[in-house]
Structure formats: C-alpha cells, structure tokens
Amino acid sequence: MTGPMRVGFHAPDAVEELAHLVAEAADTRTPIEVMGRGTKREVGRPVKYGTVLSTENLNAVSLYEPSELVLVAQAGAPLAQIEQLLADNEQELPFEPVDLGPALGFGPGQATIGGVIATNISGSRRIHSGSARDHVLGLEAVNGRGEIIRSGGRVMKNVTGYDLARGMSGSWGTLAMMTEIALKVLPAQREMRTIICFGLDDQTAVEALCLALGTPFEVSGTVHMHAGLAEQFSEAEIAGSGKSVTAIRVENFPASARYRSNRLKQMLQAYAPALELDTGPSRIFWNEVRALRMFQRRPDHPLWRISTQATIAPKLINAVSRKIEVRALYDWSGGLVWLETPPISDAGTVEIRRTLAEFGGHATLIRADASVRGAIDVFQPLDPQLMALSTSLKQVFDPVGILNPGRMYPEI
Amino acid sequence: MSHIALPSPDQTILERRNDLLKRLKKLVPGAILITDEEGRRTFETDALTAYRCLPLAVVLPKSTEQVSAILHFCHQNKIKVVPRGAGTSLAGGALPLEDAIVLCLSRMTQVLDIDLVNRVARVEAGITNSGITDAVASEGFFYAPDPSSQIACTIGGNVATNSGGAHCLKYGVTTNNVLGVRIVLMNGEVLDIGGPELDPPGYDFLALIVGSEGQLGVVTEVTVRLFKAPEGARPMLIGFGTNESAGACVAAIIAAGIVPVALEFMDRPAIHVSEQFAAAGYPLDVEAILIVEVQGSDDEIDTLLEKIGQIAEDFSPLTIRMSQSEEESAKIWKGRKAAFGAIGQISDYYCIDGVIPLSKLPKALQDIGWICRRYRFDVANIFHAGDGNLHPLILYDANDPLQLERVELCGAEILKLCVELGGCLTGEHGVGIEKRELMHEQFSEADLTQQMRIKAMFDPDWLLNPGKVFPLDERGAQ
Q: Which residue on chain B is closest to A70 by alpha carbon?
C-alpha cells in the first residue's frame, strides 16, 4: 500500500499493511473506525470517523493444536468458523461468547473472534469457566502509532512481562487494533442437563441459582428470565409456561451429568424443579439464551447489560421497575442482567444509573438508536481518578487518538 | 557474585539516609520501621538467595493509609521502593536495592469480608495464599490457585507474579481468580480497580496490574473468587518406559475430553532422588511417571481413573497405581511433594520455570539434558505437564562462584530453548532480575517499549521495584 490514505473502507490482508495504514492515519490525524465484520457497529457512542479499517480479510486460523488446548486465529476469523472447527474436534470456547448479532439486527454467528475479545462479552458459562479475556493467551495488535506489538504467547502459562493481551481485552478497539489472538480452548462437554423451575420471583430465583453455584457440582449455567421472555423459545413447555423461567445447567460425561443433576434436584426441592432437559434440548435452550433470543423481537427497545453482585440484582431491578417497565434476563446467577427498557428518550438511563449508584454495579447500553446513544453515557461513567488513568492509558497506546476515538467515552 | 548487574545506587539518597528515615518514622509512627543492620539482613534476599543486598530500611505498614503516606513520601524524595510479601520469589522479584526502602506487607493479614453466597472474599494483601482457604474451608470453600509456596507466600505476591500452581489447568491462575484490588500508586494515590462484580467497567486495568511484579503500584487489598470444594479427589500414578510415551499419554488424556485437576510429570532422576528420601513406593524401573488427579464423587472418580487407565494402556505403561483411599492418595503425592526438598538434600539446585507447547515435550527434555551435559550439570525434571510449564532442577554447588555463573548460563540457554520451541521464559515465577536480560529473546523492541510506556505511565520516575523485568539497557534508553 502506497500513497495517501483514502477516505473510505480498508480491509488489508496483511498485518504490515494494516500497520502502515494506521501509521498513515496517525500522521494525518484521521480517526479510524476499528471494525471486524461490523456486527457491533451500532454499539457505543456514535462518532464520525474519517475511515473504516476492518480485519475481515485477516481471517485465518493460524494454529490449532487440540491436544494442547490452544487455538490461534487472526482477529477477523469468523466466530462461527472457529466454533465449527472446534466442534469437529469435540472442543469449544469455554466462555460461550454471547452472539449479539441477532439482537442487533444481524444474522447469527457473524461476529469475528477479534470482536468477541475486544468487547469481552462472555456468556452463561463465564460463571464456571471464566470470561473471554480469561482465555486469552496472547495477542498481536497494531497500536495507534502503527507499531505491531505482541504480548503473551501460545502456551497455557505465561507471566513474561506485563499482560497487555488481557489488558487490551474489552477495550472496544480504542487502545490497539487486534490482529491475532491465541486462545485457550477446552474439550466440549459430552452431556448437558438443565433443571427448570417456573414462576419464581426474582429474589427467590437468585437464591436458588446461588445455592446451586455453592455446590461442588460445577454448575455451568444459571439464568432466570421474566415471564413472557421465553415465548419464542423452541422448547414448548418453556415457551408456553407463561411464567418466569429459572434454569440451571450441569455438564460432564453422561453418568456424571446425570448424577449431578439428580443431586441438584434434591437440593432444590424447595424451588419445585418442574422440568429437566437432556442434552439435545439443553443445547438448543442455551444456544437461544446465548443468542439473546428473548431480546430479538423488539429491536426498537433499548437493551442494557448490567454487571452487579448476584444478591443485589433483584433489589436493583425491582427498584428500576418501579419507575419504568422492564424485562430482565438474569445470567451468572444475577451477576449479570440483560435489561430491556421501553423506547423512551433516555432509554431509562437516569433511573438505571441512579439505582446503580445506590446499590453498586455498572451498566452499558448495548442497543439503542444513535440519537439516544449520542445523548447519554453509553458506557458506565467512571470516577475521575479512573477516568484520568484511562486517558493516560489511551495516550500510551494511541497518543494521537485515532483508534475508535470517543466510542467508549468522549475523553478516550 | 555472578553476572546479573543491579542498578547503581543514588548516592544522594545514601547520604541523606539518616535524615530521610527520621522523617519517615515521624510520618508513619504506627508502622514498624527497621533500620538496624541485623534487622535489615532478614530482608536482604528472597528465594533467589544467590543475590543479596541490604536495603536502606524496611517498613512494615499496617494499613492502606500508611502505605499511601510512605509512597507519597518516597515519591517526593525520589526514594526507590521495593514491595515485598513473604519474599518467596524465585526470580529475585523482591530483591532489595541499596538505595531503596523495602515495603513489606506481611503485617496486613486481615480477612475483610467473606461473602459465600456471591462466592467472593476481600482480604488484605499480606495474608498467605492458604490463609484465604483456611478462612473459608470450614464452609467447604477454597481459593483455587495453589503455588507450592502457598503456606508462606502472600496473596499480594501472587497478584504481583500472577502465580499459578498444580491445579491451574482446571481453575486458572491468579489473574483468572482475582476480581478487584485496592492499589496505591507511587504518588500515594489510592485506587479501587475492579470489585466484587465479574466484569470491570472501562479498561481492564486489573489485567495490567496482575503480573506486573510490583512495578505499577502497591496492592493492599484483593477481592478473590471462591469455589466450592469438590466432593473428593484422588490421583493415579502411571510409569512409562520413555519420556515420549509419557508426553503422548498426556496429549491423549486431554484429547479424550478429560481435564484432570492435576497432571504432574517427573523424570528418572527426579523419581530416584525423591524415592530415596520419601520412600513413596515409586517405580524405579521407569523413565517417567505421571501423577494424574481427578475430582468428583467416589463413583465419578472411579470412572475417570478407569478411563485414564485405559488411555494409558496404549502407551505401554510399566506401572499403573490407582488410589482407592486417602492413605494411598497421600502416598502417591508424597514423593512429588517431597521431590524439591529431596533434591535439595543431595545438592543445591537452580529451579528453571520455562514453558513449552506440550507437543514439543520430548524434544525439550532431550535438549535440556543435552544442554546440562554440556555445562556438566545433572538435571532432574519435575513439572506441570498439562500446561507445559517445565521446572528443570539443575544440580550445582552454590558455594562455588564459578558454578553459580555457569548454572545461570545453563539456565538461560534452557529458557532460550523454550522460547525457540514456541514457549516462554517464565510460567509462574516471574521475570524479576533473573530473566530480565532475556526479555529480548521473547519480545521485540516495540513490544518492550509498549510495556515500558505503561510502567512510565504509572511511575514516571521508575521508583517502584526498578531494575526488574526490563533489561537494564532498555531502561537507560527510555
């Protein structure tokens, strides 16, 4: 690539070229929209960029060693392709990344692995296996100076130097543009069983989910959804229940999964477990949770992702729902709440943030019109000390401020 | 003394020592300040005992406020600070400097909050790793990372080095088990990073802090995740005729979808020395043994051990011993746990901490043997096979300065080999002073510069734990 950078869309197929383009943009102070395949383009503060730089042509799986539990892929590799490759080898991404695509108006499975790590949006199994960033072993990225930097490696354990790889996770492309990611993978669980309770109120449901997580049975999924949210689910009994749905998952080899599920059902007697799904229906159910099926029907309704403590979550949601009508999916036994609000002008920001300030936790607006996102804080406002530190970190990676500037916060 | 240089001390600080310490004493009357030579002697080294240096003074604060006041004072007076937990670093991460104050957190050992419903605990940084588990064990919970020094090492030190342990294949290392820290920056500013939630808001500063070897700030409180203890755990021992077949068996176990909670490897020299001292009944006619531990109910354990036994059959095992009782489990672990001590009984040893991709195991062991022969040292290999974290123990005479220098060169060559094979310089001990000059082997100039920019952002004067992690010439170039 030679000559001045054109305004428009660039999707280089070599890291060096991408680095060159970033360096040129730095020279001309041209803000870059950092993108994979664009499925999360409409998340974050709306910003006017000078050019789009995509990793979609950096999409190879560079290395996969099933017996070493490691996969290295370029950032633009489609998540669906990686998961298929893993499935062919009876392995999986343990953090079960949420597929935001369908809730944001895209088809399923279109995200890139770079987008998954850049946003660190982990799924239900996070509660047991850790988050997306927890599985990052190493990273290659291009910083805002156009320098190619590497951190970590491709081995399971590595404390050589600072952990920039995990440090860049969840930074929404504002620190550096990831070009290659090494991930820890795990054997796929052979059997999955799901215990379902109907009609529990939020407080009771969270109590049941926390109880399940406090057992030695390696519970790997704990969700609770408000009545009506499961209407679109495939499992007829769930879809037609008309009640809230609380689900607890165990996975393992078949005999173990059965044993653990039985023990859990005994322990949860007080919560009246009404249904147990075996492997096939369980996989469908958790895939629907993962694709946020319950939030696909009302694309005009804002969707929030709230991180808090499990035992606080029901109080928090109860307080918010006294002011605005909300529908909630509790994941991580309540440590994470996906909250759908009515399409009001501030998307419920004032109420949600005021309640969070009282109870503790933080919220990100994942889905809303650009006009709304332009008027409110999409990401949780940080206290001044942390904001100052964030500004310094941005400076360190991207001194001119050309990588997704303003996407998370105006200052970075 | 050997070839690792330390930064030359700031003479103006040494000259002002008495005055500075007097002022420091007045500033934090509640903290313990050690200034006499005998007292300072206790802190002159960590577990990399070949290196020693008397610090300017040692201060043991009792609160975050005191840490803040001390750091603020040091920042204003441009005094270097070496943070320290229990001093168990094998890489010289807590080695003092002549013109530095050692800030030792060992008096801050409180458990501040335990929340078993949300499965988190908040503790002060000076509590020992096993102290956390002790605080929750009666309720059947535990803190997962388990470095072998866990009885002594502090959680603050674990955060600094991102410690691992035998069980991290299943539960992850420190960075996967810490949710938040309270950290004091070099200028005395106190910050809360992360918290009891599972995701932090904004940038992932926690990732940068964990594993930064005390160079970005001094962590005074840590919020950790807790897990419920499994119903039970039992190991099996498998002996093999070659290192290759042991390595291939590890790969086959994982390929079968089993992730054991521990997967330990010992080679022939390690087996023989440990058997001599621990008499655990290890087979002596094998080249390598694997200790594989699985967790669950009794039935689950039986099934898994049975399955692993079947897998091992493909690799011509010479011995298979499955534990059926706590007694047998203890015996199988006895030899492994005694191994480091046993080797220490027959010789001084230099413990290496490289990581390799598992598929390169046979080549790595062969080349390590070859490198050690060339340097005329015996070597015993004990390591966490599941994650490729090698711990070759090179036997040498620590009282012979020539041998010390040679063993360091030998170790460096082994670590370079690990990098060449696609691995890294350190899996859990940290860089410290020991591997500082080898950083170029693993990182490019741009990689190191990016890391040093972060160091400079947190600590522009490079006062916190300087002379560690980065090559000395690089620091000069900044």
A: B357
